[in-house]
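Postdoc handover notes: sequence design on the structure in folder B. Input tokens:
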């Protein structure tokens, strides 16, 4: 008898087609494809709620972070790169961009 999928969000996960060795890797380099998938995943909140990485001593990628023994691993920056550089690289890898904010209009100001 066929049992229904109890977690339908899993089918919508951006990492659904990735190898378990990538998703459950403890190393950032090997986990990079899963981290990129998380950056665009429509169900990352559901994933984090179901996995509860901090409460389950989880190893691998969940909700956009690499976890080891239930603790998030701090990303290592490359020498000479700022956090903004790292964010830009991650967004680029995910195919996303940040648009600059429009200049605020101040009350009472007039344009020249």
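Designed sequence:
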């Amino acid at each position: 008898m066929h049992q229904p999928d109890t977690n339908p969000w899993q089918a919508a996960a951006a990492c659904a087609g990735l190898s378990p060795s990538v998703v459950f890797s403890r190393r950032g380099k090997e986990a990079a494809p899963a981290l990129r998938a998380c950056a665009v995943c429509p169900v990352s909140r559901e994933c984090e709620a179901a996995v509860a990485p901090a409460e389950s001593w989880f190893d691998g990628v969940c909700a956009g972070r690499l976890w080891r023994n239930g603790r998030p691993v701090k990303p290592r920056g490359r020498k000479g790169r700022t956090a903004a550089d790292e964010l830009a690289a991650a967004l680029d890898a995910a195919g996303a961009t940040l648009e600059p904010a429009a200049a605020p209009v101040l009350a009472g100001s007039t344009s020249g």
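Context for whoever picks this up: The chain has five helices and three strands. Don't rerun without checking with the PI first.
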